[in-house]
Amino acid sequence: MPSVVLDGEPVPADGALPASALAGFGERPFGVYVHVPFCVTRCGYCDFNTYTAEELVSRDGSAAATREGYAALAEQEVRFARRALGPAEAPVRTVFVGGGTPTLLPPEDLGQVLRAIDEEFGLAPGAEVTTEANPETVDAGYLARLREAGFTRVSFGMQSAREHVLKVLERTHTPGRPQKCAQWAREAGFEHVNLDLIYGAPGETDDDWRASLEAALEAGPDHVSAYSLIVEEGTRLAARVRRGELSPCDDDVLADRYLIADEMLERAGLHAYEVSNWARDTAARSAHNRLYWTGGDWWGVGPGAHSHVGGTRWWNVKHPAAYAARLAAGASPGQAREVLGAEERRFERILLELRIAEGCPLELLDAPGRAAAGRAVREGLLDPAAHAGGRGVLTRRGRLLADAVVRDLT
Questions:
Q1: N or C: which end of the chain has fewer CB within 10 A?
Q2: pLDDT digits (tens, 9 = 90+) for 266-309
Q3: How far apart, in Å, do the first and last CA atoms of the chain sit?
Q4: Contact criterion met (CB below 8 Å) for 333 and 343
Q5: What is residue 304's DSSP assignment?
Q6: How much of the chain exceeds pLDDT 90, in percent?
Q7: Strand partners, 277
Q8: 3-state secondary structure of 282
Q9: What's the chain's average pLDDT?
Q10: Which 3 state secondary structure label does DSSP give 147?
Q11: Which of 82-91, 114-123, 247-256, 260-269 has the lowest mean pLDDT?
């Protein structure tokens, strides 16, 4: 949930969507994202819409928004969403609770929001229900209660196994804790466990990265996400880089780290199904993220959360106090929206579907794009067999240059 301010047209107070958006609603996969905007501290690299307790205190010393009341606020938006989306049946296939640090809330609070989603929309049979978790905020008992509340999947923010790398990232957990959490999650009965890793932190070496991957694999997750560190403007990390205190990794180093990850994870039986995500098998893939990548519908609950239904997307006001005020007034918390045209939707399909293992249909490309796809095959960036079958599928080398390939194809 990056904290970038976007422009768009106003969202109606009643949240009403264009007829074009609601056409076919319920026929496309539908999910719910819930943003929990609270953190104990802000990590130096983080550009997400999150707040510490101190940042939520108003000028008169009172709390402008609290963790204790947050589940009730999120529940209000869930019920608002049902009214705005109309009567069409749309069982929720995926729920993803992200942050921030969702596990700063009690499992019962997260379960309260999940129950509201089930009551308003109904959870589809076998629905995937995920929460992100900071390893320092959970223990075996917490995870057992979370599983009882209906969560089926948990994603732990591991980032690195090296203390000096964690220190640069200003992460508060200790090495070894994420692995222990993964064990507790399995014992609690979670069907799927993910570990999130970040590579390319200043001061990290190839050996540091290999050690982090080895530690993650020893924990036995069925899913690993590995992302290149991006130094976002406005963060403390960016300020340190600007002052010359830290030196970011160059693109060649980042490419090497990606290849190390892909090779080690593949050897361990985790296969890339998206540029930055590896899973043990099809069942272990993140159904919620695939919904994003394949043009599904989702409603984003919470401050700053983004939503998309039928080519219309919108985003909520960012500050929890403003969010609470909108809901208290019975109005949409949406700040702005945009209705995508046919060409914009075509571009986004290429951009997103090219990143997944199945690739994108070549029929989405215009004549220059099809010519570029032929060149990409000759350059080893697209798979020749898939191309012959009418799909653009990135090779391993193509995954390293995914953004450049998309630019050429579009």
A1: C
A2: 999 999 999 999 999 999 999 999 999 999 999 999 999 999 99
A3: 26
A4: no
A5: T
A6: 83
A7: 225, 274
A8: helix
A9: 93
A10: helix
A11: 247-256
pLDDT at 402 over 60: yes
Distance CA 102, CA 107 (A): 9
H or E, element range at 290: helix 287-293
Q: Which amino acid is at 375?
A: R
CB-based burial of residue 9 (10 Å sphere; 0-12 exposed, 13-18 middle, 19+ buried)? Answer: exposed
- Strand 223-228 and strand 297-301: the pairing is unpaired
Which of 115, 60, 62 lies closest to 92, judged by CA? 115
Secondary structure E strands in 160-296: 192-199, 223-228, 271-274, 277-279
Dihedrals phi, psi of 90, to nearest 5 degrees: -150, 75
User: How many C-beta atoms surround the C-beta of residue 3 within 10 A?
Assistant: 14
Distances (CA, A) of 93 to 54, 79, 271, 291, 361: 36, 17, 23, 9, 25
- Those residues whose C-beta lies under 8 Å from the C-beta of residue 63, and which sit 6 or more positions away, are 53, 56, 57
CA atoms within 13 A on the CB side of 285: 17
Q: DSSP letter at 308?
A: E
> Residue 67 is which amino acid?
R
Q: CA torsion sign, 289 to 293 to 298 to 303?
A: positive
Q: What is the CA radius of gyration of the chain?
A: 21
Helical ranges in 193-318 per DSSP H? 206-218, 236-242, 251-267, 287-293
Could you give the CA distance from residue 170 to residue 190 in angstroms, rounded to a whole number?
29
Least confident of 44-48, 69-73, 210-214, 326-330: 44-48
**Residues 320/56, Cβ–Cβ less than 8 Å:** yes
- 30-36/153-159 β-pairing: unpaired
Query: If DSSP codes are grouped into helix, strand and coil, which group holds residue 57?
Result: strand
Q: Are strands 306-309 and 92-99 parallel, antiparallel or unpaired?
A: unpaired
Torsion of CA 178, 182, 183, 186, to 10 degrees: 170
Six token digits for residue 374: 């032929």
Dist. CA 68–CA 307, nearest whole Å: 25
Full DSSP string of 320-382 = HHHHHHHHHTT---EEEEEE--HHHHHHHHHHHHTTBTT-EEGGGS-HHHHHHHHHHHHTTSB
Q: Which residues, listed in sequence order, are joined to residue 153 by a DSSP beta bridge? A: 130, 192
**Is there a contact between 260 and 209 (Cβ–Cβ < 8 Å)?**
yes
What number of CA atoms fall less than 13 Å from residue 341's CA on the CB side?
A: 1
